[in-house]
Design goal:
This protein is mainly alpha-helical. It has helices at residues 2-31, 38-45, 49-55, 59-70, 87-102, 105-117, 122-149, 158-173, 175-179, 187-205. Helix 4 (59-70) runs parallel beside helix 7 and helix 8 packs antiparallel against helix 10 (187-205).
């Protein structure tokens, strides 16, 4: 019985946390980071102020949680990077995972918030980079380094190669969405963009 109550309480806490971060992201986008109070977020999330302050004592802590949740993969049990040995398969897995992440509506909203508030709150950009972009980028760089060391690819500068690969995908999946409200490529179109990026990488870095 105690275990059931404990699981129930954890589930309620998780639901409230999700409601708070969703309400905060929507309000930050609508009213700006500076123009949104924690009290207003609690009201929009339909939780008490004490509940919100218990989980997020500051707006910075709340924004940090939004960034972390936005970059969290649904396949939480998946390894950060594929095993080396098949460059095409590895890049394809990495590319589709990245496209899924940055194709989420919440990701575009997060980037809009950061870009809009960056002049006044540069720490938001640092959070987005350090907690979101950088860890994913580093995992791709390490994967390319592993393929190079295993002799499956010729990647003397894995940092540059990771930038090239992720940039090709982001330039189709994410950045048009920042300017075009009706940009919504189909799953097949996203798959094609990833496959083309993989083919470009293979042409440049694969060993015969």
């Amino acid at each position: 019985m105690a275990a059931e109550l404990s699981a129930h309480h954890r589930r309620l806490a998780r639901q409230k946390r999700e409601a708070i971060t969703a309400a905060a992201a929507a309000l930050f986008l609508e009213r700006g980071y500076d123009g949104t109070s924690l009290a207003r977020i609690a009201e929009a999330a339909e939780v008490s102020k004490s509940t919100l302050f218990k989980q997020f004592p500051t707006k910075a802590a709340l924004f940090e949680a939004i960034v972390t949740e936005s970059w969290k993969r649904d396949d939480a049990d998946a390894v950060d990077q594929p095993r080396s040995g098949d460059l095409r398969a590895g890049l394809t897995a990495v590319g589709h995972r990245y496209a899924e992440l940055i194709g989420r509506p919440t990701m575009a909203a997060l980037f809009r918030i950061v870009i809009a508030e960056l002049p006044r709150f540069p720490e938001l950009g640092q959070m987005q980079f350090q907690l979101g972009k950088l860890p994913y980028f580093t995992s791709v760089q390490r994967y390319l380094e592993a393929e190079h060391e295993a002799g499956n690819a010729d990647v003397p500068d894995a940092e540059s190669a990771a930038n090239q690969f992720l940039g090709m995908i982001a330039n189709y999946v994410l950045w048009p969405r920042m300017l075009l409200t009706d940009w919504n490529p189909t799953a097949d179109e996203v798959d094609t963009a990833v496959d083309e990026a993989v083919r470009t990488m293979l042409a440049r870095y694969a060993r015969d």
